[in-house]
Amino acid sequence: MLLDLVAKLGRTTLGLIRAAGSLTLFALSGLSHIVRPPFYGRVFLSTFLETGFFSLPVVALTALFSGGVIALQSYTGFAQYHVQSAIAGIVVLAVTRELGPVLAGLMVAGRVGAAMAAEIGTMRVTDQVDALTTLSTNPMKYLVAPRLLAGIIALPLLVLVADVLGVAGGFTVSVVKLGFSPHAYITATLNSVKVIDVTVGLVKAALFGFLIALMGCYYGYNSKGGAEGVGTATTSAVVAASILLLAFDYLLTDLFFSQ
Amino acid sequence: MTGTLPKIRIRDLHKSFGSKKVLDGINLDVMPGTSFVIIGGSGSGKSVLLRCILGLITPDAGSIEIDGEDMITASPRRQDALRGKIGMLFQNGALFDSLPVWENVTFGLLALKRLNRKDARGHAGSILAQVGLDPTVGELYPSELSGGMQKRVGLARAIAAQPDILFFDEPTTGLDPIMGAVIDGLIVDCVKKLGSTAIAITHDMASAQRIGDEAAMLYKGQLIWQGPASSLMNSGNAMVDQFTHGRREGPITMELRR
């Protein structure tokens, strides 16, 4: 009974180590192909547009409403202590340091990470990945490297937009609903935000973009078993990307901001 | 001496997935210019054998030589070069969904930089004509094509780089008998025109006899018979005869769950 339990634990541990090793090798191989020719500019461009441009509406709306919600909630709490003037600073720090990258990342993970896993997974189960190999094309170079690069570049740009719109959401709610002076709000915002806040947010975004693309490509590339396998790969890619994203968000926050 | 060197030489090839032995000591020589057909039931290891030769699956043991060069021990660069000699028609076409037909057909040529994108569309039209398709088909996407047309486009993609070796994985599966015969005819024409060596795997006996010069039967991971494709229907081997005539009774027993 006890031996069975130990054996099961051992098998699970070995499986986890094997999966971590496989994912690490996949990531290193994908990254190395980013800098080694041939380069597939068309694939990169179409993935970049899909990841960046076509994710703009969902990221913009999420950021706008989140900024507004933070302003409202902060006001509710801060009004008790008569420190409503801190709202502008709270909104801009929350958005640039955390909510911009995290919300944009989660939205892109659901939209683009899932699409990557489904597309590459379908290519895998219909022999299209093998067909690439037979046509003198390395699938890691053609399918994975452009997507990783697109994720790394597109997400920081999306987060810049999210930062601006998140602050705009807080500004709109504070001015229109809570009666703040527009000039005072903007001044407080500019006084509160530092370059490091925005920079760290963008570094987080680049890492999140990489993780989302990596999970989408990894699970898609290793999918098997037809339609069900592709469905499982898609779900796994989104779940794994979301968890990793939040875990790395904590680690980076701890690294840059804990005193 | 070079004339007698097999185009493909396989020696003592083994491959297992877990405890399941799929290839169990395959030995095979395919001479240049020969059209070789491998028959066998579902799950007999035909596709795995083809994928091992292509380097898509790494065998557990044995050797696979293409023009005298071992595919398994070759460097990745040499493997790519050897693969460049091979054109492959996949069972379900394996056309790239996201690309139009013309780009599918010229994909290998563009990858090898033997063609630039400006000329690719026109070139694709001439290759499509070779497989009996109108050049305007080049503007369509794979999802807009019938099964027969997808096979033809897959064939056009396989022959586009004029390879030394052509592989056909179940070329007539899923097609009606007339379309199957049309595809077989196109395969024979293309192989003759290019002077290529061909290996086809199938369990369609009519197709096997139309395509092949020589044939072999794979059963439980072993080649149990080899001979002229014309003698497939009267091979004298009880297993081959049972298989080619589709008899329920005989030495081959199907593992059915009741």
Profile the largest sheet of chain A.
none
- Provide the gyration radius of chain B in Å: 19 Å
What is the largest interface, and how many residues per chain? A-B, 14 and 23 residues
Helical coverage of chain A, percent range: over 70%
- CATH level 1 class label of the domain at 8-85 and 163-245 in chain B: Alpha Beta
Biggest β-sheet strands, sense, barrel of chain B: 6 strands, mixed
Instruction: Write down the CATH topology of the domain at 8-85 and 163-245 in chain B.
Output: Rossmann fold
Mean pLDDT of chain B: 90
N- and C-termini, Cα separation of chain A: 48 Å
Roughly how many Å apart are the termini of chain B? Answer: 56 Å
Low-confidence blocks of residues of chain A: none
CATH architecture of the domain at 8-85 and 163-245 in chain B: 3-Layer(aba) Sandwich
How does this model look, in words?
Chain B: Pfam families: ABC_tran. Chain B: This is ABC transporter. Chain B: Keywords: ATP-binding, Nucleotide-binding, Transport. The complex is a heterodimer of chains A (259) and B (258). Chain A has one domain. Chain A has 9 helices and no strands. In chain A, 86% of the residues lie in helices and 0% in strands. Chain A has 259 residues and is an all-alpha fold. The mean pLDDT of chain A is 94. In chain A, helix 3 packs antiparallel against helix 4, helix 4 packs parallel to helix 8 and helix 4 runs antiparallel to helix 9. Chain B has 258 residues and is α/β, with parallel strands linked by helices. In chain B, the strands form 2 sheets. Chain B has a 6-stranded mixed sheet with strand order 6-7-8-3-9-10, with helices on both faces. Chain B has a 4-stranded antiparallel sheet with strand order 2-1-4-5, covered by helices on one side. In chain B, helix 6 runs parallel beside helix 7. The chains are: A mainly alpha (259), B alpha/beta (258).
List keywords for this structure.
heterodimer, A: 259 residues, 9 helices, globular, B: 258 residues, alpha/beta, Rossmann fold, 6-stranded mixed β-sheet, 10 strands, 34% helix, 24% strand, ATP-binding (chain B), ATP binding (chain B), ABC transporter (chain B), ATP hydrolysis activity (chain B), ABC_transporter-like_ATP-bd (chain B)
